[in-house]
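Hey, quick one: can you model this chain's 3D structure?
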Amino acid sequence: HYFLGYAAENDISSIMYHTLHLCRNLRRLHLVHCFDDAQDLQPAVRAISAMPSLEELGIQGISSIRVQQIQQIVRKKPHLRALTIYGVLIDLCISEILDYLHMASAMLVELDLSSTFEWITLAHVIFPLVRKLFIGPPKDWDFRKMATIFPGLLHLKIAAHRTRRGGLHDTEGNMQGELEDLRKLHRQHWRDHPDQRPSLESLQAAMNPCALYALAVPRISRLSLSYAHPDLTRFEPFVDMCRVILSEAAPSWVELRLLSALRPYLSDVESNLASRRSLLGELDACKASLRRCTVTIGNAPQASGRFSDTYLCVLVGNLPSLV
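Sure thing. Here's the predicted structure for all 323 residues.
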């Protein structure tokens, strides 16, 4: 397992080239913020292309890499099981990235393209073995082909939304209508074509649950919901979405991640009590199936014992099936 990161000086790059050429039998390799110059990168691409035993490859923050070099690297990698491409130029601007990676589709089991958004793909492109996928929403937020492209998908994480459609992730009134239309589209499609409905075990959306709401997939064993928006006026729509998602998904395990955006809610015990009761109370929508609940609160202010005890009482009071 080899890790290369944060190197730009010529002498360091030379050392890395030499190391890569010597390590032809590497199984895991992660490149992070290195080889920023295109001329420096090409020798490294040649060295990695000559590694037939790679099982896991990560490429992160390399601005000079091009899609042809990605293809050169993944070609003839019969053991490649996990691929991460994050924060590089190609996955931010090439919506057809899955088409370019299709040559590795017969091997990949885990695929992380978490900075790829508005993606599209050709009709024949299928990744039959992918079980774990981290990716942004597809073009126009149309998830109907997801199960066709990834027929074996079990764990889906939808990345935060940086799309050309801009405010779609905004949960204020002017965006609610668009989300509702997407939700109706998917619900009707899953009813008409149950064989095309993703058979997921876990579903997670980063930042907020809008994509989960639009996706409208019923029956998920493990569901992760997050709220990290700095605008607290959007917290109530978040709670409303959670109610609907939890009711349809009927999960046995729920993870709630409430990040720094809720800090003002945590500064006062009474206001915290009220807001927590309203959110945790929505778990009643799936209490018949719920067996495990994880609540994570990030960047909360230092709290007294009274705060912690009160919060615990609210949690237990709302989730009697877990006691």
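One thing worth noting: The longest helix spans residues 173-192.
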